[in-house]
Write a structure and sequence with these properties.
Layout lengths: L5 E2 L6 H12 L18 H13 L3 H8 L4 E6 L2 E8 L7 E6 L13 H5 L12 E6 L17 H14 L5 E6 L1 H12 L4 E7 L14 H16 L2 H8 L1 H10 L1 H14 L10 H14 L2 H20 L10 E4 L10 H4 L6 E5 L8 H4 L1 H13 L19
Helix pairs in contact: 1-2, 2-10, 5-6, 8-12, 9-10, 9-12, 10-11
Length: 398
């Protein structure tokens, strides 16, 4: 009888890799845009260059071997099987941590941060900074199952993550993440605050101060960027939240279309002045979406939850969250709440960071800073609770 959680390895058939290259080489290209910038979307030459590299030079097998060095598992929760990394520190008393990615990212966002979190002595930290790290793939993403029915919103995922951490022997833990990971971590605090040692949000989602007369220059700049994103860069969200199935046909059939749809975000949401993401990092992630056929299933999370989450950072929230929380607000992120705004919802902020570099994919772009901020939050939490220490792997403490 198979164990549960069961070990997992990535093994994409040679035929699928060959088919991807064939499709890329036979792409029917549109005309170039009528502007010279990115205001109509990712320029034709940029997409062609990315797809040419994907078909001719990029080596998925190298990526696959690298991924398979990570301890991966799948387990059944609430009717579907969830893929996750479980990277334990050598220190048995390390702090449990669940990291959650978003769209259009994946578990790969945290790859370079993992050794910094699990082996802090080798990366400028102290023994007390060690984490046992769990990185689940969201339902409908990567190697998690694609839900066959609705209802998998951020709150249901938050409950699944609590079950996963129980199953791994972690009665209490820190929840952290970015994009959807911020919302899901926040939902854990709203539903099961007693499970949390703390939160670390990148960034926290809060509405602006209702009094514009109190805005600082930095707050005004953040709102201008949010308004511009809403005006000119939110078309993808409107499609995902209303017609994820329709766009899913195109993105599942055309790797060039997928490269443009996701590649635009991987380029424009990063801090290009600090280097952004490499072409290989982009294609590692694009290949995950392609080989797992998750373009439609990943987009459906917007259909389930974006209306609620958008209210959190544009309109108002009536809840307050008393869990000890840290936050990182990277300079190229949108939205960028101020600490003053965040404190109205998160009442126990123990660490606040505004780094000089980084964008929406902070852990991916700036893994050292991301890990350092998580350590700083951990150090400012209340004194260690022995219930936070992990039980035996696979135990079902609740």
């Amino acid at each position: 009888m198979a164990s549960d959680p069961e070990p997992f390895r990535v093994d994409i058939p040679d035929a699928e890799i060959a088919e991807l290259r064939t499709r890329l080489r036979h792409t029917r290209w549109p005309d170039p845009g009528t502007v010279s910038d990115w205001s109509q979307g990712m320029p034709l030459q940029e997409v062609q260059d990315l797809c040419r590299y994907w078909s001719e030079d990029y080596d998925w097998r190298t990526t696959e071997r690298r991924i398979n060095k990570l301890p991966q598992f799948r387990t059944g929760i609430d009717g579907i099987r969830i893929h996750f990394l479980h990277v334990r520190s050598a220190d048995p008393a390390a702090t449990p941590l669940v990291l959650t990615h978003g769209w259009p990212g994946s578990f790969l966002e945290f790859e370079d941060a993992l050794p910094r979190l699990t082996d802090p002595l080798a990366h400028g930290g102290t023994a007390a900074d060690a984490f046992h790290v769990v990185v689940p793939s969201l339902p409908g993403y990567a190697f998690s199952d694609r839900p066959a029915s609705g209802g998998w919103d951020i709150h249901r995922i938050a409950r699944a993550w609590c079950e996963l951490m129980s199953r791994l022997g972690y009665p209490r833990f820190i929840a952290a993440g970015s994009d959807w990971g911020t919302s899901i971590s926040t939902s854990i605090a709203l539903q099961h605050s007693g499970r949390l040692l703390g939160l670390h949000l990148v960034p926290p989602l809060v509405a602006p101060d209702p009094d514009p007369g109190r805005f600082t220059e930095a707050e005004q700049a953040a709102l201008r960027d949010l308004d511009e994103r809403s005006r000119s860069g939110s078309g993808y969200s409107a499609v995902h939240s209303t017609r994820p199935q329709t766009i899913g046909y195109a993105l599942t059939d055309s790797p060039a279309g997928l490269a443009a749809w996701i590649g635009e975000k991987l380029a424009t949401w990063t801090d290009q002045a600090a280097g952004g993401l490499t072409r290989d990092q982009m294609l590692d992630n694009l290949s995950l979406y392609w080989f797992t056929r998750t373009a439609a299933s990943s987009a459906r999370l917007y259909w389930e939850s974006i209306e609620e989450v958008a209210r959190w950072f544009t309109a108002t929230t009536s809840d307050t969250i008393d869990v000890a929380a840290g936050a990182t607000v990277f300079p190229a992120e949108v939205p960028r709440p101020s600490r003053r705004w965040a404190e109205r919802r998160f009442t126990r902020i123990v660490h606040w960071s505004e780094p000089a570099a980084g964008g929406h994919f902070g852990a991916w772009e700036q893994p050292e800073r991301f890990a350092a901020d998580l350590r700083a939050t951990r150090r400012r939490l209340p004194a260690d609770d022995t219930s936070a220490r992990p039980g035996p792997y696979g135990s079902r403490q609740r």
